[in-house]
Amino acid sequence: MNLHALAIVLALAGCSSIDRHAAPPADWPELRVVVHKSGFMAKRECDGAIGGCAAPNFCAKRCDIYLQIDSRAIETHERAHCAGYDHPGDDTMRAGWLRYRDGDQAAFCALRMGTANYCRLWSEDAKRCGTGVEVPGMAGAG
After folding, report:
1. Integer Cα distance of 75 and 79 in angstroms
2. Coil, helix or strand at residue 44
3. Which domain range does residue 63 map to?
4. What string of DSSP letters covers 55-90?
5. Looking at the whole model, is its pTM more than 0.85?
6. d(CA 4, CA 37)
């Protein structure tokens, strides 16, 4: 099978496996998408996924897409993941967001990035940004 035929097969598989009937969580954040078209990076970052993968980073409000081959269909599929869509019967994206949102991940991000940097991205986080509420351990950080 040549590379072009493989790309078509992967593209068709990718397009059909996004569950457009199950909407992402209503509060899914808008993530800046960065596409990496490098087979080496995709192999390293995608943990065996064929074609490519999406890796949301909620701390940075960023979603990196790693493509093994330059395919518009596969990129579109991965962009759907960055927008919060999962495969049918899967909840990887939803579960990742809910763990971040409901857990203590935001506090970790604020500590890791500095409060000022965190609040530039997450101004809607009233607990940490613009309300005068001090984050424990954050005095003078940022």
Report:
1. 6
2. helix
3. 29-102
4. EEETTTTEEEEEESS--HHHHHHHHHHHTT---TT-
5. no
6. 16
- Domain check: are 66 and 110 in the same one? no
For residue range 5-31, list pLDDT tens digits in order.
444 444 444 444 887 778 899 999 999
Among candidate residues 18, 63, 16, 7, the one with its CA nearest the CA of residue 36:
63
Based on the domain organization, do 113 and 58 belong to the same domain? no
Instruction: Single out the residue of 33, 55, 60 nearest to residue 44, CA to CA.
Output: 55
Q: Are residues 35 and 97 in the same domain?
A: yes
Quick check: is 41 in a domain? yes
pLDDT in tens, 63-101: 999 999 899 999 999 999 999 999 999 899 999 999 888
32-37: strand order across its sheet: 32-37, 62-67, 52-57
